[in-house]
Design a protein that fits this description.
The structure is a single chain. This protein is of the alpha+beta class. It has helices at residues 2-29, 31-36, 41-47, 81-88, 99-103, 105-109, 116-125, 140-151, 188-200, 223-233, 273-278, 282-291, 296-304, 327-334, 344-355, 391-406, 480-493; strands at residues 55-57, 60-67, 74-78, 91-92, 96-97, 133-136, 157-162, 169-175, 241-243, 247-249, 256-258, 270-272, 310-311, 315-316, 360-361, 366-370, 376-379, 384-386, 423-429, 443-450, 457-463. A 6-stranded mixed beta sheet has the order 3-2-1-6-16-17. The longest helix is centred in the first third of the chain and has 28 residues, at 2-29. It starts with a helix and ends with a helix. Pfam families: PBP_dimer_2, Transpeptidase.
Length: 495
């Protein structure tokens, strides 16, 4: 009997210990994580009991709470809603939260650890609870220019602009966008109806193409990473030359690679790496990639951020750069095809790193958090993300990118800005064939930075479906996105 009592006593004691540990974990260790979980409906409901902080652009609120006479007490509103929707996201009764509304929910709702003592003092003083405001890094003029350049002709895609020296995101546009006000009213019936319409929209307006979604084949903008890997390792320089056929049969394959021009890369028997970048030729880049260590380009891509976890503080889908398993795969991967996929943010980081002398700064959307009594609660400080290449390599790649803009035959020439040294690279990515065997429309890219001598902005532009119906789904990679990139850079440089 005593033995059985001891066993029961010890079991009950162990259960109490387990319960104590579980309660401690929930109440103290994982409390913030559980509160921040977008599936936690109580977090959203509790958020309507306080005046939620604003999301600011240049000091002006683009997301804010307004008092109401209903049981919710407040309603969330968005000025210029579609313009900033990829940044703010939405705060909804029935559909949860997204964007900065989710990523910065603790600060906006006043439940973060940094506001603990403020909450106690407010309770003692009878002050109504209130959340802190979040000041973004977004430049309103740059955001407006990027959005206008995409929406005026109905382009689907994304634009990201980064300040190379700090990592501050100056613009983050995804089109088509949506109006967060449709999901943030105090009518659940309206919210559900509106959300269903947005979710069923074939253009996928709820998808943030700048940092997430299905990702894109980067096409020829990926050649910048091939060049960086080769120059950094000492295996090549801009003047290195390669055989210059109009067609290349890939090793152990019947597949034939061609340049976009369907001709050789220039008039000579040999083509240099610089020519391949300026004219965006596929074959010399593929020949170079097949000579490099199989891991070289993929490792360089990872050093720039591919396949790395990243929050800005929005969660960014990892870009993908698998190590090729054969020379044929190395050749196809080198021109941004096969299994290589990237977000526009990632390609903006590549240009920003090259612009910043080989140092990639961690991108961020948040400048600072401001308490209701206007104190700075949290201040952004530039943080180095990685240093994938030396300044010497960065200068070499920059020189080739600049000639791609300044040369009369450079494919990035339409991004030239009078009186400004601009570096740029275009890209066209093939997307395979449909069920009928017809080629799918191309994805068009541009990435670059300016001014070369003192970079203020790095940009990446992606346009889906060759520009869409207005361009017969076959728009040029050195026309549409290049003009958009120029417009965004000009918006930064004009300030």
């Amino acid at each position: 009997m005593n033995k059985q009592l001891k066993f029961i006593t010890r079991t009950v004691f162990a259960m109490f210990i387990a319960l104590f540990f579980a309660v401690t974990m929930i109440q103290f260790v994982t409390a913030d994580e559980l509160r921040a979980n977008e599936l936690n409906g109580r977090t959203v409901k509790n958020g309507y009991k306080v005046e939620r902080g604003s999301i600011l652009v240049g000091g002006d609120p683009v997301a804010f709470s307004t008092p109401t006479d209903d049981s919710f007490r407040y309603v969330r509103q968005y000025s210029a809603g579609p313009l900033y929707a990829p940044i703010t996201g939405y705060f909804s009764h029935s559909q949860g939260i997204s964007g900065l509304e989710s990523a910065m929910n603790q600060e906006l709702s006043g439940i973060g650890n940094a506001q603990f003592f403020t909450r106690i003092m407010n309770t003692l003083n009878g002050v109504a609870p209130q959340g802190s405001s979040v000041e973004t890094t977004i430049d309103a003029r740059v955001q407006e220019a990027a959005a206008a350049a995409m929406t005026e002709q109905g382009f689907e895609g994304a634009v990201v602009a980064i300040e190379p020296k700090t990592g501050k995101i100056l613009a983050l546009v995804s089109t088509p966008s949506f109006d967060p006000n449709l999901l943030s009213s105090n009518s659940n019936a309206d919210i559900i109806t509106n959300y269903k319409q947005l979710e069923e929209d074939p253009t996928r307006p709820l998808q943030n193409r700048a940092i997430a979604g299905d990702l894109y084949h980067p096409g020829s903008v990926y050649k910048l990473l091939v060049a960086a890997a080769a120059i950094e390792s000492g295996d090549a320089s801009p003047s290195s030359s390669f055989p210059n056929p109009a067609q290349l049969t890939l090793p152990q394959s019947t597949s034939v690679m061609q340049n976009a021009s369907r001709t050789a890369c220039g008039p000579d028997e040999k083509a240099t790496l610089e020519q391949a970048i300026v004219l965006s030729c596929n074959i010399p880049i593929a020949e170079l990639a097949m000579k490099l260590d199989p891991d070289a380009v993929s490792e360089m891509a990872r050093a720039f951020g591919f396949e790395q976890d990243l929050t800005i503080p929005l969660t960014v889908t990892q870009s993908v750069a698998p190590t090729p398993e054969s020379d044929a795969e190395a050749a196809l991967s080198s021109i941004g095809q096969l299994d290589v996929r990237a977000t526009p943010l990632q390609m903006a980081m590549v240009s920003a790193g090259i612009a910043n002398g080989g140092t990639v700064m961690k991108p961020t959307l948040v400048e600072q958090v401001i308490t209701p009594d206007l104190r700075v609660e949290t201040q952004f400080s530039p943080t180095e993300f990685s240093k994938p290449i030396s300044s010497k390599t960065a200068d070499a790649v920059t020189g080739m990118m600049e000639k791609g803009v300044s040369s009369a035959d450079g494919l990035a020439m339409k991004s030239a800005i009078p009186g400004v040294r601009v570096a740029g690279k275009t890209g066209t990515a093939e997307n395979g064939t449909n069920a009928e065997g017809n080629d799918l429309p191309f994805t068009l890219w541009y990435t670059g930075f300016a001014p070369v001598d003192d970079p203020e902005v790095a940009v990446a532009v992606v346009v889906e479906d060759g520009g869409g119906e207005a361009y017969g789904y076959v728009g040029s990679s050195y026309d549409i996105p290049t003009a958009i990139g120029k417009r965004v850079m000009e918006a930064v440089l004009s300030e």
